[in-house]
Amino acid sequence: MIGLKAVLLALATEAVLAIGLDVLVGTSVFWSVLISLPVAAFVLVWLSLPGAVEPSWHPLAEPTVTATHLEASTLASRLVDAAADPARFRGRVQPRLATIALARLRQLPDTHDLTDLRDPRAARALGADLHALVTSPTATLPDPARLAALLRELEEL
Q: What is the DSSP track for 83-118?
């Protein structure tokens, strides 16, 4: 419902704009009123919208998207691509898994000086399946359950 305050403000806007056009630009009264009519209509619609005149003092909602959410979303899309195309697995996912595996092995006392996953100590520490997943040039993405198990093994080293 259009309130009296909104109508009065729209009419005031119309009058000020029409007088300004007439005095400052020199247009006729008819054209000044006609040109300022859409502006007054916009002001009327804007003021008629709920909450347009009063400020909202409610605190802003917490954003639902966090960095973790974005990283998980990116990882999920990369895993979907990697499942469909083994070359994408070897180009996008496998190097990141290898970096994580090497970092994890460097935390262990027996393999803290490793610089390459082709070292026999890395193969022994990771196990055959996990080592093949992160180093083999022909590796493919395993099914989700197997991948979760391998990542759990890596985490528990």
A: HH-HHHIIIIIHHHHHHHHHHHHHTSSTTTT---TT
> How many helices, marked H, and strands, marked E, lie in the chain?
8, 0
pLDDT in tens, 85-97: 888 888 888 888 8
| Cβ neighbour number for residue 131 with a 10 Å cutoff | 20
Whose structure tokens read 């899309």? Answer: 77
d(CA 135, CA 153): 16
Q: What are the angstrom distances between the C-alpha of 102 and each of 47, 68, 71, 99, 139?
A: 62, 23, 21, 5, 17
Cα(17)–Cα(34) distance, integer angstroms: 10
> CA distances (Å), 133 to each of 52, 92, 127, in order?
58, 13, 10
Full-model pTM: 0.53
